[in-house]
Specification:
The protein is of the alpha+beta class. It has 13 helices and twelve strands.
Length: about 450
């Protein structure tokens, strides 16, 4: 068996597998024996028909199909056990995608099979990545942001207390309700009380929560509206009438902004006065904003490099496979929540075409970004040396990878996880460490070239 690898410049690696006459005879005999097991011939017990007799009864079409499938399997096995072949395309291939096959020649004297592997986008021309001019929105520190953070700290320590005052936005309101759906009372939807945070639009009332504004405890009323596709199936596209009685109103009581508050809050340590707290907040916000602006800058630079780069890929098949992979994940996750993908799309008023475009864009952009990263590394071998274990241990504060593997494996074993799965989890974890380390090296290198 002979293997040759080439790239078709259209987004595929193609491994050609050639079978000689001796191999073809071997696989023809194996296919004949395989089909003979299921033959029922008078005078023979099932599965006991000899090969020569079986040949007279096996249909050529059945033999050909069995042989082709056998050659496909043998081709994949030969590729997967040949590191020299695998290494030519492994880091370029799109994972979780089955290869396609092309029968170039099918002949007992010798056959040729092409195994077509879909690749991720590959950079054919790298956009300029040095001294890139970009525009991006820069965040600025202001006293308003300091006040916003103080308010967040206040609300974090605030408590809801019963009140007889009129309802305002953000009040927590308890309602006793009766629900009428298309004029018919629905006892299955009656509950003793429902809690509504007015203005959140997260309750059954949706945007109609605003109808409760300025009402008080004891007030009664009726709220009517027509539902759309965002509502659960039993309420969808119906006229809803909700009779309610307000049984409780709670308003948030905020702590006073003073030195005592500064001492008691837990978000910023070692402060004694309100002024010291504000100073700590400013310092923290300054650091956060600097990091945010740095992230925005590198994102803008990388986006421009990607935009100005040229790529090679099979657009039609790539989109088909990316959508297929993500759809399977989404269906599984949504089923765990008790809903279907169709319900999810209806809720978000999204067509199947819009869903596919959104999925493709979401998954395609990181593939292009990673292709750019790989090209930068390949073009600068003097900068990007192989990542060493010592570097990983320093970054992640590990004594050694061996200790990490041992400790992590023991933790998973306590959860009664299968040994094969544990080995896979640990390997993926280590791979992610190396990938994250390399990615940060690339980002730092790009930033160094764009001061």
């Amino acid at each position: 068996m002979e293997l040759k690898t080439r790239f078709d410049q259209k987004g595929h690696a193609i491994v050609t597998v050639n079978f000689d006459e001796k191999e073809m005879q071997k696989y023809l005999d194996a296919s004949t024996q395989d089909l003979a097991k299921n033959l029922s011939i008078k005078g023979f017990r099932k599965g006991k028909v000899d090969v020569e007799t079986a040949k007279r009864y096996i249909k050529n079409e059945d033999l050909t199909n069995n042989l082709i499938n056998r050659l496909f399997r043998k081709s994949l096995k030969a590729i997967n056990t040949n590191n020299d072949v695998i290494n030519t395309f492994y880091y370029k291939m799109l994972l979780n995608v089955d290869p396609r096959f092309n029968i170039v020649k099918l002949d007992p004297k010798g056959s040729e099979i092409e195994v077509i592997i879909l690749l991720s986008p590959q950079v054919t021309k790298l956009g300029e990545f040095k001294n890139v001019k970009v525009e991006y929105e820069k965040e600025k520190l202001s006293e308003a942001k300091v006040e916003e953070e103080l308010k967040r700290l206040q609300e974090q320590d605030g408590v809801y207390e019963p009140s007889q005052e009129p309802i305002v936005s953000d009040d927590l309101v308890s309602l006793k309700i009766q629900v009428y759906l298309n004029k018919e009372k629905r006892k299955d939807l009656d509950v003793s009380t429902i809690d509504v945070k007015v203005g959140s639009h997260q309750s059954l009332l949706g945007e109609k929560e605003e109808d409760l504004l300025n009402k008080k405890v004891g007030d009664q009323g009726v709220i009517e509206f027509t539902t759309d596709d965002k509502y659960p199936e039993q309420l969808r596209n119906s006229h809803v009438e909700i009779k309610y009685e307000i049984v409780q109103v709670q308003k948030m009581k905020l702590p006073s902004l003073d030195d005592e508050f500064a001492k008691s809050q837990n978000s910023y340590k070692d402060v004694e006065t309100l002024e010291e707290l504000k100073k700590k907040i400013r310092e923290s916000l300054k650091e956060r904003i600097e990091n945010l602006n740095k992230d925005r800058k590198i994102t803008a630079i990388i986006n421009k490099i990607v935009k100005e780069s040229e790529f090679e890929y099979d657009a039609e098949q790539l989109k088909k496979e990316l959508v297929r992979i993500q759809r399977a994940r989404d269906v599984e996750q949504l089923e765990q929540q008790g809903i279907t993908l169709e319900d999810y799309l209806n809720f978000h008023k999204m067509s199947n075409e819009e869903y596919e475009e959104k999925v493709y864009s979401y998954l395609f952009e990181p593939l292009c970004r990673n292709a750019v990263y790989k090209r930068i590394v390949d073009d600068n071998p003097e900068v990007f040396k192989p990542v060493e274990e010592k570097q990983i241990c320093e970054k992640y504060k590990l004594t050694s990878l061996q200790d990490y593997i041992k400790n992590t494996t023991e933790q998973y074993r306590k959860l009664n996880i299968d040994e094969k799965q544990i080995a896979e989890y640990v390997k993926n974890s280590i791979d992610n460490m190396y990938n994250d380390y390399r990615t940060q090296q690339i980002i730092d290198y790009i930033l160094d070239n764009n001061k």
